[in-house]
Amino acid sequence: MHVLVIGGGVIGMAIAYEARRQGWSVTLVERNHCGQATSRAAAGMLVPVTEAQFGEEEMYHLNAASLDRYPEWVERLEGETGIPLHFRTMGTLVVARDPDEWGYVKHFFELYHRLDPAVQLLTPREAHRLEPALSLNIAGALYSPGDHQIDNWQLIRALREALVRGGVQVLEDTPVERIVLADDRCTGVETARGLLEADVYVLAAGPWTHQIPDVREVLPIPLRPVKGQVLILKPTATAPMPERVVRGFQAYLVPKPDRLVVGATQEEVGFDPYPTAGGIYTLLEGAYEMVPGIYDMTLADILVGFRPTTPDHKPILGPTPVENLVVATGHFRHGILLMPITAELIVEYLRTGQVPTALRSFLYERFR
Ligand code: GLY
To answer: Please, are residues 1 and 318 in contact by the beta-carbon 8 Å criterion?
Structure first.
């Protein structure tokens, strides 16, 4: 079987990787460079519990199942490429700066504690003991010890390297100009490199999926970009890193071996690619009030990403009305976390022709 994947973010690359593991012939086309858009702007938090929302238990279960698969993926990718992914359990502290926020955190504690009984509430002093970089001037914190994280920049490098080493044809700088359809089947995709043909096509172009000519007409996917601005800080001798993920109401801080990621705004402004003064102010104020030591850090970069988002905040995964066209997008805030399970379920569907039970709540047909 020949599979053609459209989109070289972590989702597209992971599907290509998993498809290649089946022994299939795989081509991946990416309009720019693999992983350099939304996947790069992500923070690599693998935090099903502290990303959970009331009424979205289905998403929690998918997120948690994907986290369970991470150790195996990390072992394989690190083994094949020698690129360390810095996959770590370090827990998350959700910090309340004032009594209002503390009320909100205690409300969420009910949900988080139901999902993971190890979640606990901490006084400011207890929180500070656990994370010395934290301000003492807070109202309290919630600690979720089971949360993980990964270095998403290293993950991007490793996935691309594993694809190339594994014999996947990776075509970068190759935008898809047209999807060729005949009798409810896809017969090829036209690109600047000419017509590319395969047996099965996977649409994994994130928020740009329905900007591909023809896709909007054939698959009117209700997808919108939700902008996120992210700061990259570098620690200095006088500004040590926090040791764990610190989340608050205006910002989260995710320490990596070589940088501190401060994210992220959540803005409904379409594909506006520019950082804004207000966005950066919000992130810095929120981060500084939780971890004052960031004041002395170097501001190394500002990134802007676009979360692919559906009306119900759930991804769209699996078959479409076009017989041999499969979709994997709409991962919203959870693209890095949902990478392993997305790839495994999509490839299971391609292998068996049967929709896996775990995919049933995430099918395109719920929007038809
Ligand atoms: N998962 C974090 C974010 O989307 O900002």
So the answer is: no
User: What is the atom index within ligand 1 of the atom nearest the CA of 334?
Assistant: 1
> Which of 143, 159, 139 has its CA nearest to residue 151?
159
Strands (DSSP E) contained in the chain are 2-6, 25-29, 45-46, 88-89, 92-96, 120-122, 140-144, 148-149, 169-171, 176-182, 185-191, 194-196, 200-203, 224-234, 245-247, 252-256, 259-263, 298-309, 316-319, 325-329
CATH number of 89-147+224-309: 3.30.9.10
- For the chain, domain boundaries: 2-81+152-223+311-367, 89-147+224-309
pTM of the full structure? 0.96
The domain over range 2-81+152-223+311-367 is classified in CATH as 3.20.20.70:
no
pLDDT tens per residue across span 11-64: 999 999 999 999 999 999 999 999 999 999 999 999 999 999 998 889 999 999
Q: How far is the CA of 245 from the centre of ligand 1 (A)?
A: 13
- Which residue, by CA, sits nearest to atom 5 of ligand 1? 264
CA of 1 to the centre of ligand 1 (A): 35
